[in-house]
Design a protein that fits this description.
Layout (H helix, E strand, L loop, with lengths): L1 H9 L1 H10 L2 H34 L2 E7 L18 H9 L1 E7 L4 H10 L25 H7 L3 E7 L17 E5 L24 E4 L2 E4 L4 H17 L6 E6 L11 H4 L10 H24 L6 E7 L23 H4 L3 E4 L8 E8 L3 H9 L15 H5 L10 E4 L27 E4 L3 E4 L2 E4 L15 H18 L15 H12 L12
Parallel strand pairs: 1-7, 1-8, 2-10, 3-4, 3-7
Antiparallel strand pairs: 2-9, 4-5, 5-6, 8-9, 11-12, 12-13, 13-14
Helix pairs in contact: 1-2, 1-3, 4-9, 7-9
Bound molecules: calcium ion.
Length: 520
């Protein structure tokens, strides 16, 4: 019926014939029916478009951040014997940022990711000694996403301050399931000290302010909890979620079930075999996550991101994808890490973006994808990656990126962290780097990455004008960040919140067992 009417309307000849053959009242009736049908068709089309727009306007966001896994620690990046089939699948289905850089160590990268600003501007100049605390004036991406209606959760490592005011529940996260800084079971001068007796197996976790005794391997526990939360959030289709899953693995100490490290018995010795085994376990959890997203019909409306927080801690000497340096260094291998992004309808499978990008870019990127307004007074350091995602060859204005390992001495402290010169300005030209699309200036040495990606030959003497331009930009940057290092003189006698709260709860109420959410 509808096809006939559409055909009749579309054909001038048909309409003319109708006028000649059909009585007027019948012709009028057919025309009315046709108008109603076409209107209904347009309404249906409009509705379909609106539904589709709604589902991609505010996609769910899942951000996986592995700890200390480098660019080379993946089979899709050419590793000679490590197999990561699930991350390889995500790599194949993603837009890949192949020249993506973070900071040389942990807390600095996390602060940049959360705030969209250079780590030093958040006061984060170290991973310990209260210098991991992200300034309370910083606004987090979780807060911005919440303003756009997102529900937010963190599952794993926060490492931006253990004191209550610095904890993620005060920084925009609705659901928190975390261990203490810097890593599971760690203990340093200052507030850092995880719950006593915790470990990579059966870790004690602070879940929304209450300590629970979990059962299982740390990475498995974080993914299990995150997946349960994702599933419960997905029941409300009107409210998108942001799940941040920063794993503690494969950070030291290198503890993992023997069946994982045994995979590498013929290739390398301990602790490299455990390190790679921890990555295999992460890969399995990535597989479980992607399977569940498919099963729960969430994959099409979820931005899935995988990245890591610094260069490889234990893998760079086995395979480093041709780069120089690993975790903690300001060479390429210290900061260049994987970044895979998958959101059907926005990203495309197997697309490579070679433009240099940075951790601070993710804040404006996620805000744009989520349709969240960034407050006017936020002075962000990054740029949205959306134009590059839409067109990998889009115009991209030249910019310098700056790297500094920080970690200078704490004045008055006994032991190795108190030895040396505590003045940050005296460390300005130690362990720094400046990058643009072609060059990397590393502690005064200049490398032409186009010709020499492995940074083997210093060409500073041949290009003094490039060195001068990069050093001038670095001076300007240092002058900008230096006044914002608010944690330099932070007192260390502030108690140990994780330890103290755990002991208090144990005494008063006991430590309940964790109830793993069912995923079936
Ligand atoms: Ca790390």
């Amino acid at each position: 019926m509808f096809r006939f009417l559409a055909k009749t309307l579309a054909s001038g000849q048909g309409t003319f014939d109708c006028r000649r053959t059909f009585p007027r009242h019948l012709l009028h009736r057919i025309t009315t029916l046709a108008v109603v049908a076409v209107t209904a068709l347009f309404a249906q089309l409009l509705y379909t478009t609106q539904v589709k727009a709604q589902s991609t306007d505010r996609p769910n966001i899942i951000l996986i951040l592995a700890d200390d896994q480098g660019y080379g620690d993946l089979s899709c990046h050419g590793h000679p014997f490590l197999k990561t089939p699930h991350l390889d699948r995500l790599h194949a289905e993603s837009t890949r940022f192949n020249d993506f850089h973070v900071s040389p160590t942990c807390a600095p990268t996390r602060s940049a990711l959360m705030s969209g600003r250079a780590p030093f501007k958040n006061g984060v100049t170290h991973t310990i000694l209260e210098r991991d605390r992200m300034a309370l004036t910083s606004t987090t991406i979780a807060e911005v996403l919440k303003s756009a209606g997102y529900t937010t959760g963190i599952f794993g490592k926060w490492h931006l301050g253990d004191e209550d005011a610095y904890q993620p529940d005060q920084r925009g996260f609705d659901e928190t399931f975390i261990h203490g800084a810097g890593g599971i079971g760690q203990n340093f001068a200052g507030s850092q000290s995880d719950a006593p007796g915790t470990s990579y197996f059966n870790p004690i976790i602070k879940h929304n302010g209450t300590f629970v005794q979990t059962e299982g391997y740390c990475t498995d526990v974080f993914f299990q909890q995150a997946l349960g939360w994702i599933r419960s959030q997905s029941e409300d289709e009107t409210k998108p979620f942001f799940a941040y899953i920063p794993t503690n693995a494969p950070h030291a100490p290198y503890k993992v079930e023997k069946r994982y490290s045994d995979l590498f018995r013929d290739h390398c010795s301990s602790p490299q075999s455990e390190f790679l085994g921890m990555i295999v376990n992460i890969d399995e959890n990535m597989g479980r996550l992607m399977t569940k997203l498919d099963e729960w019909d969430l994959a099409d409306n979820t931005l899935l991101i995988f990245m890591t927080d610094n260069g490889s801690a234990k893998g760079s000497k086995i395979y480093n994808a041709g780069m120089n340096g690993g975790k903690g260094t300001v060479h390429e291998g210290g900061s260049r890490v994987p970044l895979f992004m998958r959101l059907p309808g926005l990203t495309n499978s197997g697309v490579d973006i070679e433009t240099m990008t940075r951790h601070v870019d993710l804040f404006p990127t996620l805000a744009e994808i989520a349709g969240a307004d960034i407050p006017d007074d936020l002075d962000l350091d990054g740029r949205s990656l959306v134009p590059l995602i839409k067109n990998p060859r889009s115009e991209w204005e030249h910019r310098f990126q700056f790297f500094h390992s920080g970690r200078w001495t704490k004045a008055g402290l006994k032991g190795k962290f108190g030895k040396g010169d505590p003045d940050p300005d005296h460390s300005k030209h130690k362990n720094y780097a400046v990058r643009d699309e072609r060059w990397r200036l590393v502690n005064g040495e200049l490398y032409d990455l186009k010709a020499d990606p492995g940074e083997t030959t210093d060409v500073a003497d041949s290009h003094p004008e490039i060195v001068t331009r990069m050093l001038t930009a670095f001076d300007t940057w240092w002058d900008e960040v230096r006044p914002l290092m608010v944690n330099e003189d932070a007192p260390l006698d502030v108690g140990k919140p994780f330890r103290d709260q755990f002991l208090k709860q144990k005494e008063e109420a006991g430590i309940p067992r964790w109830s793993p959410p069912s995923l079936d």
